[in-house]
Amino acid sequence: MQLIHRLLIHSCLLLLSLQAYGQGCDTSSLIIQPVWASQTDNNIPVELYRHYTFYNPDCSPKNVLLVHLVGTIGKPFQTQYFPSLAANNGFHVLSLKYHNDTSAQTACSSSGDIDCHYKFRREVIEGGDISPEITVDSVNSINNRLLRLIQYMDANYPSQGWGQYATGNTINWNQLMISGHSQGGGHAAVMAIAHPFQRVLMFASPNDYSITFGQSAPWTSLPHSAADSAYYSFNNTNDLVAQYNWQYTSAVNLGEGSFGDTVNVETNTCPFQNSHNLYTDRDSSGFLTNHGMVVNDVNVPLDGNGISVFEDVWRYMLGLPCQGVQLDELSNAQMSVAPNPFDSELTISFEQSALRTLELSTLSGTKVYSTKREGSNYVLDLSHLPKGVYLLSVKDASGMQINRKVMK
Prior knowledge:
The structure is a single chain. The protein folds into two domains: about 10-320, Rossmann fold (3-Layer(aba) Sandwich), CATH 3.40.50; about 330-405, Immunoglobulin-like. Helix content is about 20%, strand content about 25%. It has helices spanning about 10-20, 35-40, 80-85, 105-110, 115-125, 140-155, 185-195, 245-255, 290, 310-320, 330-335, and strands at about 30-35, 50-55, 65-70, 90-95, 165, 170, 175-180, 200-205, 210, 215, 230-235, 265, 275-280, 335-340, 345-360, 365-380, 390-395, 400-405. A nine-stranded mixed sheet has the order 1-2-4-3-7-8-11-13-12, sandwiched between helices. Strands 14, 15, 16, 17 and 18 form a five-stranded antiparallel sheet that branches. A two-stranded antiparallel sheet has the order 5-6. Strand 17 and strand 18 (about 400-405) form a beta hairpin. Residues about 1-25 and about 325-335 have low confidence and may be disordered.
């Protein structure tokens, strides 16, 4: 039995303590358990990297399993912020090690077979002789590795509740959500053709585009068992690995267009106009950075408190309340807000005195408080407001405006 690992990397202890707002469970109880695939099935060869599982016994269980698939050459240990957030909100989470050395786009972009991407993905997911571009047998398929990992966790940690997600050798797909980055996001969407996942979360994906035929892969328009409303995507318009218009077109083909236009998370707050097609236009240096920043730990932008600036995006995609408190570093240097969360009074401080307008609104845009005062220190009596997350906007005579999320 492997050693149980607590979350002690990437400054995650601080991250998770702040993510606990509104959850009612102790994030320090989070258990991260690496598991060799070869432990789950004797027919799987020994590998250098492991599956990762996430479970918090202190949280009220949602009885939903989130399966996350990393991108090309990605390893489960490299993505822990997002799975940890899910586990600290009651999800069981499995991050799968699978055959991901080559991407579908690399193998199929210039293929003369219009269905090359679909066949490639099906072989990775199901195993067998489906695509000439890759060789994955049924033992090493995503489906078998997932089933064996569920069974292993149930056998070795029966009190954690993993057994509810499989009956015998059949996965109970309707109790699953699936997410994936890049190649993993494309696999997630293809798996949802056959299985009724509760949600399908795609990060920087799907990227399947045929250069030969000048179009997105036809599988993106196939009927699927998961409802159109289950699909959510989060991409970067400055992605240098895969063109954003490929991702956008695939998302529309999958049905996301029925839930409004694409929305920029940098200029909109959660719940992002209830759109299912979200994007950021952040632009960072490094070839892989923009492609990975939407979910990969090493690329995810963090605020001054070590919290992912995309926490509310992830919460929204998972179906959780919009309760992340995110601080803008520039605003943080110019304005101090305390305490946050607050109980009845909120103190706002500046280095210099000025006439300022202070407004508080709900995340849906309803104004609930407004005042205009001169000074450098403002104490607002907000005891009349219900508990929740609010957007504080402060503007001075020069037109400078600073926004901050606050929580009561």
